[in-house]
Amino acid sequence: MLLREGLRSLLERFEFEIAASVGDAEALASAVAQHGPDLVVTDIRMPPGFRDEGLRAAVQLRATRPELPIVVLSHYVETRYVGTLLDFNDGRAIGYLLKERVADVEEFVASLRRVAAGGTAVDPAVVKRLVQRQHDPLDQLTRRERDVLVLMAEGHSNSRVARELTVSEAAIGKHIGSIMAKLDLAHEDVEANRRVKAVLAFLRA
């Protein structure tokens, strides 16, 4: 309850309009049906069992409204949840963040806005855990291309990726072009589609 009310207060400060604030998965489903929100923020673990009730609620909501933006919060890095969240709507409008990220208020709010606008926001700790998995199907990428893809998976723009890696934006564009070619995504007509599918290939690997 403290986290919920804290989030409510925080988001109202950043001019989010809160349609409802609820404490369990059943109430969440009812609130979404009643208010038709532009964004849902939910915990993975909710009453009564505090296991994966929030995740299952999110999956059910996406099954009925595939384009509904949802951000799921978790205490732990649990990579098995990422694939479940990405199963609907090609992974668009989905966020998976650790609760500790709330402390970085501006970045947290930016992640919420990105998901509400149809983007994807995956916690850097989850991305790093995925990178460290033993059998990496993306070994055709160079180390720098992998660095670029990690930052793309975190939801950063080309300019932000360039700043993080201390290279020019033109260089990042070339790296992304190479990534798309190696992942057989060069044929995609829309740049946004290419980026999303590259990130999905990485996260699902």
TrEMBL record:
Extent of the signal sequence: none
Domain HTH luxR-type: 134-200
GO BP terms: phosphorelay signal transduction system; regulation of DNA-templated transcription
Residue numbers carrying 4-aspartylphosphate: D43
Coiled coil: none
Gene Ontology terms, MF aspect: DNA binding
CDD domains cross-referenced by the UniProt entry: LuxR_C_like (cd06170), REC_NarL-like (cd17535)
InterPro entries: CheY-like_superfamily, NreC/VraR/RcsB-like_REC, Sig_transdc_resp-reg_C-effctor, Sig_transdc_resp-reg_receiver, Tscrpt_reg_LuxR_C, WalR-like
Source taxon at top rank: Bacteria
A Pfam family reported for this protein in Swiss-Prot or TrEMBL: Response_reg
Ranges for domain Response regulatory: 1-114
Keyword terms: DNA-binding, Phosphoprotein, Transcription, Transcription regulation
The protein's name in its UniProt record: DNA-binding NarL/FixJ family response regulator
